[in-house]
Amino acid sequence: MLCLNDSIRYDDPSLQRWLSAVEETHTLTALLLAVWPLARTLARHIVESVLAARAQAPTCWPPCPTCGTPLRRKGLATRQGTSLFGPLRWRRRVGRCPHGCDSPLVAPLDGELGLQPYQRSSGELQALGCALAVFVPCATAAQLLGWYSGAAVSPRAVWGWVQRAGGQAMATLQEALQAVATGQLPPEESRAEALTNVPLVRGADGVMVPFRPDGGQPRGKTPWCEVKVGGLARLGQHRTRIGQVVTRLAQRRLVAVLGGSEALKARLWLEAVRQGILHAPRVVWLSDGARGLWHLFEERFAGHATGILDFYHAAHNLWKGAAAWLDGRTTPARRWFGWARHRLRHGQPDGVLADLAEA
Q: CA dist 58 to 53, 55, 73, 111, 117, Å?
């Protein structure tokens, strides 16, 4: 550690205050908090050094988009942006058409780095901001990013990242849906070998979600809209610490759409193909008794899956049958319902169905 400290001090004396802060800490929490600014600074130096070395490498100049003449070097230009480790600043070669065509300066290194014109924040910072914005408001996400990177991040920037990422995701989804509609099935998602030959279970339901009447404004009465949700999972096996084997949902995937069952159908089928519905040893469809969901099952999934009404809705319908048969206010009705529900739950429906048929 002493050799590392001496090397850092010699190479960059500006890090002296960070090193002093690390040496003066006592608790582990304080030590980690003091090391993080130092780590960010070192990371920036490493990244800027790598970028500077790449900028000195030979450049293959592209042709001018107007006349097709290879561009000519016009010197070095500075570029800067915000990353997870704070602000970055580096210089790279830029070129322009030698015939004076009305085209902007071109920096080939920017394309190699995956940077867009006028992009002021790195991709990993935007990705983390979008992930945080899924769970917390944009203002909170911006503050968390500021704590992490040491740079100021505005809530409006996080909002813009989310909108851009959402637009790209919707464009990708529409391309995939159009490909499936024309018979081009997507490749299956990779999975652990232990999940290859286990059943695939799917289900769907509808939930009511509150929306603001005006985007970004809290004014007005909150409208409630139905969101159709579909879930897919593999029934994996897990051994507990005492050696008991239990079933657990593995490789869970979720599909949701603001709309009806028809809007859900294409998206759920797309994800089902990705999860291996065409090759799974057994596929189960589990949902409540909503007619729209069972129409969806019959139109798209009946040829690949076994449909099962979930236990709670089955028990509810069983009680309605008992109440109509034996009068729900009587002891025999409650006694028969308890017996029938127990047999239904433990996979013995034949006696229950026989009693209902006789009634």
A: 11, 8, 11, 15, 22
Report the mean per-residue pLDDT for the chain: 86
Sheet strands side by side (includes 245-258): 245-258, 224-239, 200-210, 283-287, 306-309
Cα 282 from Cα 71, distance rounded (Å): 60
Q: Does pLDDT of 260 surpass 90?
A: no
Residues 193 and 102: their CA atoms lie apart, in Å, by 57
Amino acid at 6: D
Total number of residues shown for the chain: 359
* 139, 155 Cβ separation under 8 angstroms: yes
- In this prediction, residue 156 has a pLDDT band, given cuts at 50, 70 and 90, of very high
Closest by CA to 41, choosing from 153, 158, 151, is 151
Sequence-separated (6 or more) residues with CB below 8 Å from residue 188: 273, 274, 275, 276, 279
Q: Where are the alpha helices (DSSP H) in the chain?
A: 2-11, 16-23, 28-55, 108-112, 123-135, 138-149, 155-181, 261-274, 291-296, 311-326, 331-345, 350-358
Q: DSSP assignment of 110-152, as one string?
A: HHHTTPPTT--B-HHHHHHHHHHHHHS-HHHHHHHHHHHHSS-
How far apart CA 158 and CA 178 sit, in angstroms, is: 30
Q: Which pTM does this prediction carry? A: 0.74
CA 133 to chain centroid, in Å, comes to 11
In contact, 9 and 19? CB cutoff 8 Å: yes
